[in-house]
Amino acid sequence: MGDNLSRATVQAFCEALGSRDPVRLSQHLTDDVEWHMVGPVHLLVYCGYRRGKAAVADCIGRLLPSMFAVRRYEPEEIIIDGDTAAILINVTAVQKTTGRTLTYQTAMFAVFQDGKVKSLKSVADTFDMAEQVVGHRIDAYCTPEVPIGDVIAL
Amino acid sequence: MSGPVSPIALPKSAGRDLPPWLADFYRGYVNRDPALLNAVMHDDVVWRLAGPGEQFEMETAHRGKAAAIELVTRIIPCFFHITGFEFEHLVVQGDLVATYGHLRARQRDTGRSLCFRSAHFLRFRDGRLVSFRGIADTFDMAEQMVGHPIDATKRIETVSIVPDEDALLTL
């Protein structure tokens, strides 16, 4: 495990990620980067697993901006241990389709190699995010009338 | 089940064990051990959980040792018993700690096994926990707790128990 990861390197990555600029972000990723943002993909299209710089750049540079325009992207906490950084980020974004302002926190765990991110896992309060996206309180107990997501049997 | 639960699993890639003070905290958390929690938490600890607290009748912010211990030992077990943490990342920088991985639990009412991703950000002072912040994939957690996919188009219907203004005027 390396121990050369600096706070400046982590902050530069966060700024690139917050910019949603795929070219800028790519400079902070290894070619075979693994990227996993957990969450309901049918509501938050940028969630899921991606591998490779191009796939991640497309996710952050195209998919995410198709839903949100980020207005604020500020790390609240950065903890560094060896080659790994844990980052707690406060995000404010405007939903493209409605103009609604959304605020949420996301926790990211990034492993760096030679100053670039080689893997990232993130988790957020996805139920709250889903409610903000749909614009109302979701009744979790209501049994769905039709299947949600992929059809798995006919 | 008898005896204390083995609370945590670290990946081999971690190459180390939890620091003793952190191991004590997680042992107290998983085993719902008030004495151990009392020993590892600061009097003014702030404990925050992300999630649909209103739907599951669970407050998400707790301040003070007594409130935090009550949350871990009485309130959370009303919904599920945490059986372990499987950490994929352990990040320790002085008094600051962050963990990421899977939280495993058994739902009290149904006996169903639950497993969802979560991250913890912890801050210690003088070896005692002063701040705990838990962030989880709460949509996945909620679907496992209710036992079916959640239709996000279904909104909570609210019924006011207070008469509307017109009704009040006629009273």
Core attributes:
heterodimer, A: alpha+beta, Nuclear Transport Factor 2, Chain: A, 6 strands, B: alpha/beta, 5 helices, about 30% helix, disordered N terminus
CATH topology of chain B: Nuclear Transport Factor 2, Chain: A
How many angstroms separate the termini of chain B? Answer: 60 Å
Oligomeric category:
heterodimer
Count structural domains of chain B. Answer: 1
- Helix segment count of chain A? 4
Structure commentary:
- The complex is a heterodimer of chains A (154) and B (171).
- Chain A contains four helices and six strands, in the order H-H-E-E-H-E-E-E-E-H.
- Chain A is an alpha+beta fold and 154 residues long.
- Chain A has a six-stranded mixed β-sheet.
- The longest helix of chain A has 15 residues.
- The radius of gyration of chain A is 17 Å and the shape is elongated.
- With 171 residues, chain B is α/β, with parallel strands linked by helices.
- Chain B has a single domain, classed as Nuclear Transport Factor 2, Chain: A, CATH 3.10.450.
- Helices cover 28% and strands 36% of the residues of chain B.
- Chain B has a seven-stranded mixed β-sheet with strand order 1-4-5-6-7-2-3.
- In chain B, strand 6 and strand 7 form a beta hairpin.
- Chain B starts with 7 loop residues before the first strand and ends with a helix.
- The relative contact order of chain B is 0.15.
- Chains A and B meet through strand 3, strand 4, strand 5, strand 6 and helix 4 of A and strand 4, strand 5, strand 6, strand 7 and helix 4 of B.
In short:
Chain A is of the alpha+beta class and 154 residues long. In chain A, 27% of the residues lie in helices and 40% in strands.
